[in-house]
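Quick one: structure for this chain?
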Amino acid sequence: MKSKQSLFLIAARLLSMTVNVLSMRFFLHWFGESAYGAYAVGNGFFFFVALLDVGFFVGGARRITEAFHRGDVEEGWSIHRTQMTLGYVVALAGMIVYPLIGAAHEMVGLTRMQGVAFMEFLSWQFAGLWLVQYYCSALAAKNRFDLQGVLYFLVNFLGSAIALALGWHNRNMLWVSFGYGGGTLVGLLLGLIWVRIQEPGFRFRPGYDRAIARDLWRQGLTNYPNRVAGTFSNRSDRQIIYFYSPALTGQYQFISRPAEILTDLLGSTIDTTQPEVTRSAQQGPQEMASKLHRNCLVVWAMACSFMMVPCAFGSAIMHLWVPDKIFGSASLVMLCVALNYAGELHYRALGTAYVARGTLYRSVWFPAANGVATVLLTMPIVRAYGLAGIGIMNAVFSLVQLYPRIKHVGTETGGLFPVARHFSKSMGILGICGVLTWVGFEINLRSSSHWVILLAPVLACVAFAACVALRLAPPPKLLQRVWRRPIAVGA
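Got it. Here's what it folds into:
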């Protein structure tokens, strides 16, 4: 695992997210929970509009990595340029679809025409963020994760900073969406200028190869049902809750945000390991299975330690973040969301086996079942049990998939992936982190001081150290230099 590169991406995203976190507090204070819920739902359409891309990104990223790895540089750039053309088509299509959604979907606090303008500005943000992924697929294939981190930083930081400044000056959600959209595009432009300076050989000009486009289209359609199911399983709950209560949607977005931030930060480890697993697949199935086993245990241990344990202090986090608001069951909901997202990170890491082999469609049954259950159960559960019920529902959905997902990866790799060993170690990691999460949860409930949150990083580090010390997970390679005793790569 490229630990140094992961740390660079984490640091870049952390800096940009700091502004985003601060801006959320002010937006909630300025506009109220219902209006903020409308904004959260508008942003949530990103993942549904992204389905306009039938899969050019995933298939193209794998093929670019393979081409560069075998030394066929021109083939790699041809794929990248064709992929970029298709990416621009999707971005432009999104800028048409977004205002249509605004015309059909009433936004709290906005007239119909304001809602159309609101969504049009968010479409600029969609276009910028979507194109960043396409540029980063080539950067990742060339192991330029430093430039990838700069792109992510500029796009997210400038979008959040400009939105915050315009929101403070005008106290209007339209100006906030304009700031996010305009700032994202400016950040993309500045980032690409920096890439040009640091990587003169990078090919920016879009191109088109009909054979490559046809192949990307074929691969995309094969994996498309998986993407549709994954979008509905992970993103439809907020849209559904909005129809019941916009205010609850705003609360849920706010309570979920710490876990989402931690997910995005730790997701950087997967950004750097996917090319590694793809390259190892060309060295043989046994090599790929070994790297996959190791990387997935590291991701799972980090996710449980640095997401579940800190989020046990949910009420203290919310009190420090928004002291003038009271969110019921914040600790329980945040903890359940963190457990759900930790599972998703693990499954994304396991999914690199399918991506490396071009068989992502074979795992469609898991997100499909999750998506159907989410769509059918969200409304009755939120009516009966509120946000606590939604949090518990998502956590249960994530946990019950653990063994079937691992078993399926074992089948996908022809029995080379150590299913029993991986599952037993995963359960051990979950058990250790679960105990320390319970300790943190009890301390948080019994303490009257919100400064108890200072214990969160301590308990998180203790949890991860315990997982490594008990050989349930190998340490990231960067830490192996300071770790005294040798640890087997296969964990």
